[in-house]
Amino acid sequence: MYYYKFNLKYHLHNAKYIKCLGKGGYGTVKLYKCKDNHNKCKDNHKCNELFVVKYLNYQDIYKKKYDKNYKDKLFKKLALNEYTIGTLLNHEYIIKTLDIDLYKNAIVFEHCNGIDFLDYIQTMSPSIEKKLYYFKQLIEGLLYMHNLGIAHMDLKLENIIIDTLNNKIQIIDFGHSKIFHDSLHIDTVILNKHMYGSLSYIAPEEFLEIEYNPEKVDIWSCGIILYIIIHDSHPWYQASINDCNYKNYIKAIQNNNNFFTHYDNILRKMLNPNPSIRPQIKEVIKLLC
After folding, report:
1. Catalytic residue from among 154, 173, 182, 218
2. Total number of domains in the chain
3. pLDDT (tens digit, 9 = 90+) per residue, 98-125?
4. How far apart are alpha carbons 127 and 133 in whole angstroms?
5. Distances (CA, A) of 102 to 16, 33, 57, 68, 156
6. Cβ atoms of residues 179 and 189 within 8 Å
7. What CATH number does the domain containing 45 carry?
8. Cβ neighbours around 53 below 10 Å, total
9. Which residue segment(s) compose the domain that 81 sits in?
10. Which of 119, 128, 153, 184 would bridge 176 by S-S if both were Cys, CB 3.0 to 4.6 A apart?
11. CB of 177 within 8 A of CB of 85?
């Protein structure tokens, strides 16, 4: 496990605030720079390095009519889930989680110098080859997570940071991540029932309010990401029969017609409405080769 004791209280006291990196329903993400005068801080963290603090504010929780004590307990449970899963992950394509402070409602991450995949596509106009290069890194990172029995549950372009200097990605944001099997029961999948993520990336089974396999939800989201990479647009607004484009896609499948202009075979498999037929991540890697 990648971990060393990062003392948030100490570092914030000895840090310079740089800027706000983003805001959302989850809270606010801020960038700091350690300004300790020594070569290394007392917790062995390298000085003069940037670090990121995510101040949590799960707005959806506080909008609901729960009593305050229950809301606070649920808040801490979600924060601990994100932190715990983050500290289990040690991979070159996944952001490193350093510390948590439940009193400040904050989680600390290493800083990745880059822009998210969506901004990268919109501002850099990269070639299809370059976009696929980073997509394959996403699949490798996700393979690592799935091998540990962890599903991301909120994969989208905005949760993939492109470090163009080092030519690699960093998968971020484990706020909705779930453990779907453990090492002692590797053949047993822990099903989920709640809907997570951004609407256009959500798998069709999540709309049905039934138990589903979190692993296959990640595959669906990756299929949407692959479609956007290739076509520079979303295939549909949401994967439900109320969406005309998705309805046309279902008809194309039923009539065995081509729907995708490029990468039809792999997209059909990753975006199969039936999650039991959808491939596992190791099969996706073979399809990309």
Report:
1. 154
2. 2
3. 989 888 889 999 999 999 999 999 999 9
4. 10
5. 22, 21, 12, 16, 27
6. no
7. 3.30.200.20
8. 24
9. 8-110
10. 153
11. yes
Residue 1 is assigned to a structural domain of this protein: no
Tokens standing for residue 32: 């700091």
**Does residue 3 sit within a domain?**
no
Domain annotation covers residue 270: yes
**CB-based contacts of 56: which residues, under 8 Å, 6+ apart?**
26, 27, 75, 78, 79, 82, 105, 106, 107
Check if 72 is active-site: no
Question: What's the pLDDT tens digit per position in 122-157?
Answer: 999 999 999 999 999 999 999 999 999 999 999 999
Per DSSP, helices labelled H in 148-263 are: 214-231, 244-254
H-helix segments, the chain: 8-13, 59-63, 68-88, 117-124, 128-147, 214-231, 244-254, 264-270, 281-288
- Global pTM reads 0.88
* C-alpha closest to that of 151 among 114, 181, 185, 194: 181
